Amino acid sequence: MLKKGPLLYEGKGKKVHSVEGHSDRIILFFKDSLTAYEGAKKGSFTGKGAICRNVFSLVFRYLKTQGVLNHWIEDRGAEESVCLKTHIIPLEVVIRNRLAGSTAKRLGLEEGNSIPSPLLEYYYKKDELHDPFVSEDQIIQLSLIKEKNILPEIKTQAFLINEKLKAFFSEAGIELIDFKMEFGTTSKGLILADDITPDSCRLWDMKDGWRMDKDRFRQGWGQVEKGYQTILEKISQRWKKELDEGLS
Ligand code: UDP
């Protein structure tokens, strides 16, 4: 078993550790904590880290079977995964299939409206600036990222990942409304990094529109744990056996 090294970084939802003797790997530890509004609202529930690790693992393993390069290597215990170390590109890449959250609010549009085709948005990852929305042109002309030459590749990957994930969730009876991705680079090029969990997606029940994701916590609707558990149950029921058996 790999030996966990020192803490490299602690974020709101995860801790990132190095791995002893393997400078190309990291261990992600998923915490039980929940935060919203840039950390101003805090909460937690026991087992949340394990649920998020399991959602992350199913999503990233599925994406691997679909040919989407990503940093997941293997799970470890209940709340951790071993991943490939990457250089994270400081962009939050958001895809929206239906209007919700900040964009609906900012533009005075109704939440839940459909969008003719998936909408891509970039947010510049800089805590002190509160991760502002940035246009593609701003990223390029203002050299906001060193890797600006790979922006076309990020865009293609983001739309592809969206198509794969829409299918992944819809086969489990869940509509993927929007989600956030982060990409990293390795010596081999661009790969999907960070995580995709109920903290970073909007996921609505296809039957009755019941919202199962972090909006339950953000908006104070209650039953946060039930929402997260339901997401994991639904995707596990559809995908776990297939992924565990390495089929698909
Ligand atoms: N998101 C995220 N981290 C952020 C901001 C957004 O994971 O720092 C996710 C969020 O959960 C949602 C999608 O990205 O699924 C779009 O978020 P939005 O811009 O609507 O912001 P919000 O109002 O949710 O903060």
Based on secondary structure, the structural category is alpha+beta
Described by its quaternary structure, the protein is: single chain
Tell me the distance between the termini.
Answer: 28 Å
Considering DSSP H and I runs of 4 or more, what fraction of the residues is helical?
Answer: 25-40%
In short:
By secondary structure, the protein is of the alpha+beta class.
What do you see in this structure?
The structure is a single chain. The chain has 248 residues and is of the alpha+beta class. Helices cover 30% and strands 35% of the residues. It has six helices and 14 strands. The strands form three sheets. Strands 8, 9, 10, 11, 12, 13 and 14 form a seven-stranded antiparallel β-sheet that branches. Strand 2 and strand 3 (22-30) form a beta hairpin. Helix 1 (48-65) packs parallel to helix 6 (224-244). The chain is globular and about 50 Å long. It starts with a strand and ends with a helix. The mean pLDDT is 96. Uridine-5'-diphosphate is lined by residues 92, 94, 101-103, 131, 178-180, 200-202, 214.
